[in-house]
Structures are given as structure tokens and as C-alpha cells.
Amino acid sequence: MAKPVSPGLTLIAAPSPLSPSKLQLAQNVLATTLNRKRLREYQSWKHMRRRCNNPNDAAYPRYGGRGIKVCARWNDFALFLEDMGLCPDSMSIERRDNDGNYEPDNCYWATRTAQSRNRPGFVKLSPELAAAIRSETGKQRDIAAKYGVCQRTVNMVLRGVTWLCN
After folding, report:
1. What is the pLDDT of residue 116?
2. In this model, does residue 124 exceed pLDDT 80?
3. What is d(CA 81, CA 35) in angstroms, rounded to the nearest whole number?
4. Per-residue pLDDT tens for 65-108?
5. Three-class DSSP category at 108
6. How far apart are the first and last CA of the chain?
7. Residue 165 included in any domain
8. Is residue 148 part of a domain?
9. How far is 15 from 37, CA to CA, in rounded Å?
10. Pair 111, 132 in one domain
């Protein structure tokens, strides 16, 4: 549902239910700097820009240092908020393409679980891969290296914690 925030700007609410206090805060976000600083969307925007643009930021090597940029449109918080909408509870900004820039077509609000699956080196464990791991003998670290998973994953598969045997 679109809500006018100021002339020329429409705030598009995220599909999840929002508390009235958060919605009111979002509607007033452009009115005062204090409200901006309290809004989760503003914090996401600020941190996104810092890790891409500030070489002194601890996360810069994984973002700006790899060439990840923030699109020019999103240098304006109001336009970022217009494109992304309100952040649902327990979510934060995520890029669909982990090597792509922060831009409207590549970003969405995601859970920690979704974000953990979008990391470099993440291997989606299929039932077939779990069966292959279970059929192996030898040291777990060698099995992990063979299939490109971590040793903990191998351990969990062998103990039946992940992908239980039929």
C-alpha cells in the first residue's frame, strides 16, 4: 500500500504487517534527523554505504574492496526507502547476486537464513549429496574436501542430524 510521505515521494510499505508505531515513524522519516537515526531502514542504508565507500570500515574489504558499489540513486535515503519499502521485522538488506552492486533490481529484505545461503562457498545440500557423503569411509575432513562442504556438515549428515536416512 502506497503512502504519501512528502511531495513527490511515496512510501511503499513492505508486505509484512507493521506495528502502527513503526509505520508512523517511517511516515515521519523525512521530517527530522532524529527519526531517521532511529529507523532500521536508515541504519541499513547508512551501514550499506559505509561498508562500500569507507576504506576504514572493517567490512570494506568484503564489499567496497571487492568493487561492490551503491547505485547513485541510493545516495539519497528517501529514494532508497522508496525503492526498498519498510524492512519487515527480523530482516535486513540482501543482494540477490553476491557479486552485484546495491541497486533496486539486486536487493531485497531477507532473513538471516536466506542471507547465510547467499554467501560465497555455500553448498546446497541435496538428498543425493547427503547419500553420497553417507556412503563414504575415511576421515571426515577428507570427505568434506571431496564434496566441497565443511567438516561440521559431514559430521551432521553422518549422525543423521541433517538429511535423515530413509
Report:
1. 72
2. no
3. 14
4. 999 999 999 999 888 988 998 888 889 999 988 889 999 999 99
5. strand
6. 46
7. no
8. yes
9. 23
10. no
- Which pTM value belongs to this model? 0.56
**Residue 109 and residue 72 in one domain:** yes
- What is the number of H-type helices and E-type strands within the chain? 8, 4
In angstroms, the CA 126 to CA 83 distance is 35
How many angstroms separate the CA atoms of 101 and 71, rounded?
7
What is the C-alpha to C-alpha distance for residues 2 and 11, in angstroms, rounded to an integer? 6
Q: How many domains is the chain partitioned into structurally?
A: 2
Q: Measure the CA–CA gap between 59 and 55, rounded to whole angstroms.
A: 9
Residue 33 clears pLDDT 70, i.e. is over it: no
CA distance 80 to 72: 10
Q: Is the pLDDT of residue 166 over 70?
A: no
Where in the sequence is the domain holding 80, given as residue range(s)?
Answer: 2-116
Instruction: Please check whether residues 111 and 49 belong to one and the same domain.
Output: yes
Task: Say how far apart CA 127 and CA 15 lie, in whole Å.
Answer: 33
